Amino acid sequence: MKRIAVLTSGGDTPVMNAAIYSIVRLAHNKGMQVLGIMRGYSGLINGDMTELLPEQVEYISNQGGSILKSARCLEMMTDEGKAQAVKTLHDFGIEGLIVIGGDGSFKGARSLTHMGVPAVGLPGTIDNDLAYTDYSLGFDTAVNTAAQEIAKIRTTMLSHDRICVVETMGRHCGDIALKTGVAAEADFILVPEVPFELDDICKQIEERQKKGRETSIIVLSEGAGDSAEIAEYIKEKTGRDMKSVVLGYTQRGGEPTVFDRVLAMKCGKRAVELLNEGIGSRVVGIRKNRIYDLDIDEALTEKLEFDYELYEQYLQMTNY
Ligand code: F6P
Fold first, then answer.
1. Shortest-distance Cα residue to atom 10 of ligand 1
2. Which of 1, 160, 165, 166 is the most exposed place for a label (fewest CB within 10 A)?
3. For residue 127, how far is its CA from the centre of ligand 1 (angstroms)?
């Protein structure tokens, strides 16, 4: 291939730029030009793109956000949108595309490949909700940020004998809450994968108080409930001084961890290699510490497994 393109799609992650950096640099090494498409599939449909030169991507790998901006594009789900996207790719002489995004974005890549332009997906989401890869790009940064924030919240809760419900992102996947909660020694972890009764939590809070533990940190995955409502419920039942904090976009921003950067760069390398061989409809990920690629359909049908073993370990470690 002589000319490929890259876009970032869906909710951004702090490590999209590191992936772009590696793609641009490694593609140029292979004699390929790289176009950067703005605002995900919207920019593809509208032809909003510019060439990315190796010197232009220097020192971007530690910057959160995406130099290409990111967006969710409903038009790409329609036949007209897809046809227009393929037309743009042909008009610009683009022979292959790398899509950095989540499962919705991968479907677009699959369609484009089936319509004649090989497209490869990189797992760009903080949620870690793509079953085919042990880590998605941005997850490590998100959990590190969340654990650091909880440590700060804990000190002030301790000073005031308060209880705080800390809400993490993750959509329907509890992995951010689980890993963050374990690392931060949260007193409760509430995730969509494990049913819970708020009345039980209230009882446990009262028992903790009898043992002299006035403060609790409850890590709540956004898919398991609303932090403000849960805090209010516990307050009414126990009469305790309750607070709630939504960590929100802090988890999607800031400087990416070294783990995330290196992973993004490794995945970028595989994506460039695939396109260089004219292969599309693949996604790149990491499994058992090895970078690998997989058919998009297979990746999308793989069932996500919650880490019940870690959750069980957490219960045992915190059962004091
Ligand atoms: O998928 C990433 C994610 O950050 C989820 O964790 C969250 O539910 C959602 O995106 C938020 O999306 P938006 O950027 O539209 O607020």
1. 11
2. 160
3. 8
- 50, β-bridge pairs: 36
| Ligand 1 proximity of 126 Cβ (cutoff 6 Å) | yes
The CATH number for 140-252, chosen from 3.30.450.30, 3.40.800.20, 3.40.50.460, 3.40.50.2000, is 3.40.50.460
- Amino acid at position 103, single letter: D
Ligand 1 centroid to Cα of residue 32, in Å, is: 33
User: Which CATH code for domain 3-138+256-301?
Assistant: 3.40.50.450
**How far apart are alpha carbons 274 and 278 in whole angstroms?**
6
CB atoms within 10 A of CB 312: 10
pLDDT in tens, 149-204: 999 999 999 999 999 999 999 999 999 999 999 999 999 999 999 999 999 999 99
Question: Which of the residues 127, 140, 187, 260 is marked catalytic?
Answer: 127
| Predicted confidence (pLDDT) per residue in 105-120, tens digit | 999 999 999 999 999 9
Bin 170: left if φ > 0, else alpha if -120 < ψ < 50, else beta: left
Locate 320 and state its tokens. Answer: 């004091």
Alpha-carbon distance 12 to 101, whole Å? 8
In whole angstroms, give the CA distance from residue 121 to residue 50.
20
Distance CA 248, CA 210 (A): 33
pTM, whole model, 2 decimals? 0.97
